[in-house]
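This part of the workshop introduces the protein records we will be handling. Getting from the letters to the C-alpha cells is the skill we practise here. The record below serves as our worked example for the rest of this section.

…
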Amino acid sequence: MAVVVPFPGMLFADRDPAAMAAHCCPPYDIIPPAQADHLHDDLSANAIRLELARGDEVTRYENARTTLDAWLADGTLKVADRDAIYIYEEEFSVPGTGEIKKLRGIIARVKLEEFSKGIVLPHEETLSKAKEDRFRLMRATGCNFSHIYSLYVDDEHEITPKADAMADRAADIEFTYEDGITHRLWIEEDPAKCAALCAGFADHRLYIADGHHRYETALRYRDTVRAENGGDAGAAEYVMMMLVDIDSDGLVVLPTHRELFDLEDFDPEEALESIEKEWDYREICPCKAQEVLDAADQITAVFCTADKCWALTLREEESVARVLDGKSAAYCSLDVAALHALILEPVFGIDKANMASQKNLRYTRSAEEAIDDVKNGRMQAAFLIRPTRVRQIKDVAQAGEKMPQKSTYFYPKILTGLVFNKF
C-alpha cells in the first residue's frame, strides 16, 4: 500500500516567529490579487516568490528558479542534512462558530502511484490549465513548494499516536499568521522513530483531500524524469504530502454555495414548480438559512432569490440514484450531487460544461455573501448547501468516483513556507 518516507526538508534559516510569519503565504490558488501584491512588494523573502512568482507565461517560472538559487546561495533557505518527519499543527477558530480546534498532520514524502492502483485515491475532477502551470513550475525549480493534503484511516491506532508522541514537546517553529491562525512545526530526525511511524502506512490507502492538480502534476513530472533518465526518477518518484487522520477532531470541511447569474427568463416560482417534483419546500426568513442547514439530518438546500427564501428537503434519496444511474450509494448521498442532478442541470440547464467554465454558476464559501449578492441584484439566485462529511469523501473515493467540482473546502488551508521538498 502507501509508501511513506522521511526526507531532508528545505526550510527558511531564520525561524524567529516574526520572520516565519513574513516568509509564509497561503496556497497559491486562494491568494487574492491585493494580498499577492502585499506579499511581493512588502516582504523580501516570502514564499510567494517561489510558488507564484511574477512574470509572463515564460519568465515567471524562470524568476522562481532564479529566486530559489539566490536564496540557497545566500543562506535564506537551507536543505537539511538529515532525513526527518515533520509534524505540523494549526490552531484556529472555526468560521461561523468561533470554536477553537487543532489540526495536526504528518509531512513526509509519499511514493507516487497511479490512481488505478487504488493506493492513493482522488475525489475531485481537475482542470488541465492548472496542471500545466504547476508542471512548468516544477520543471523550472525541481521542488514541491506546497503540500498535497491527504487523509488516512487509522482505526487500529497504529499511526496517529506515534505522530502525537513526536509532538510531545515544545515546537521547533511556532508563530501566528496574519489571519490569526497559529502554526507549529516539530522536526523529528530520529531514524527509528521515523521508520516506526512510516511503517504504519504499509497497509493503508491515502485519500486526497486537497491538491489533486499537484498530485497529477507530480505523476507527469515523475514520468518525464523517468523518460529523460532512462529509468528511475530518484526523489521525483515521491511527492510531499501532509497526512491527516480522517477521524481528527480538527478536520473541518466548509460548504461551497452556488450562485446563479445570466439565466434567460429566470422565474423563481416556475423553478419551484419543477423543484417540488422531488423536493418538499417551505418559505423561510433568510436569517434562518444557516439554522435550517445545521439542523438538517437529510439532503437539504436553501434556495434564495431577491425577495424570498425557501428550505428544500429531498423526499427520497433514491431519486438521485434514478437520475445518476450507475453512481454509487456514497455518491448519491451527497447533498451537492442531489443539487446538481435534480435542480441545477434539469431546472436551470447548468451541466458539467457550464460548471467547468463557470457559465451561469459562481461559487462562494460565505452564505452571507450569497444572500447579499442575490438581495442586491448581483446574482439572480443562490443555493446554500450543507458541507460534505469527511467520511463521505473517503467512501466516494473508495468507489472510484469523483465529486462535482467545488464539493469540498477543507479549512484551514496548509500554509506554504514551513517546509519545502527539493528533489
About this structure: The two ends are 23 Å apart (CA to CA). The mean pLDDT is 94. The first strand starts at residue 4 and ends at 5. Residues 86 and 187 are 5 Å apart (CA to CA).
